[in-house]
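In response to the reviewer comment on reproducibility (Comment 2.3), we provide here a single inverse folding case reported in full, input and output, so that an independent group could reproduce the run without further information from us. The structure tokens appear first.
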């Protein structure tokens, strides 16, 4: 059960990180504030570092992981582009990113509860992703 729960938790973490990086990439071209751009760029780098650690653990457990579903990617793209077309600006970017971070934190907590036998290394990595998403939320709230 340990390996199964560990691989499932890591796979879900990997999907969440991929979605976070993709979301940042979608909004960066329209960000006006240099400070907001820097915050998002820093978070992107942190997410990429955490993704590399996730991939290393998945490899260690001989698991391929998974990729975000086409539906999830499409819905995220649609929401982002519609919101930014209707209400462009840093306030919308911050709103989208904070919503995404909150969804990510909620999902990761759900997966930790769903896979209670996951290894400590996987849980620790998920905690780091949660901390990064909570940090980004705090640091960009002033743009709302």
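Designed residues, in position order:
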């Amino acid at each position: 059960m340990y390996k199964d729960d560990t691989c499932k938790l890591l796979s879900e973490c990997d999907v969440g990180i991929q979605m976070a990086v993709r979301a940042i990439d979608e909004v960066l071209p329209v960000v006006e504030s240099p400070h907001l751009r820097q915050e998002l760029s820093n978070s992107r780098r942190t997410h990429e570092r955490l993704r590399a650690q996730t991939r290393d653990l998945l490899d260690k457990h001989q698991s391929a992981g998974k990729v975000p579903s086409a539906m999830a990617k499409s819905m995220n793209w649609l929401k982002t582009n519609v919101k930014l077309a209707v209400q462009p600006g840093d306030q919308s970017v911050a709103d989208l990113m904070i919503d995404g971070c909150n969804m990510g934190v909620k999902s990761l907590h759900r997966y930790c509860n769903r896979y209670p036998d996951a290894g400590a290394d996987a849980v620790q990595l998920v905690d780091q992703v949660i901390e990064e998403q909570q940090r980004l939320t705090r640091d960009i709230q002033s743009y709302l």
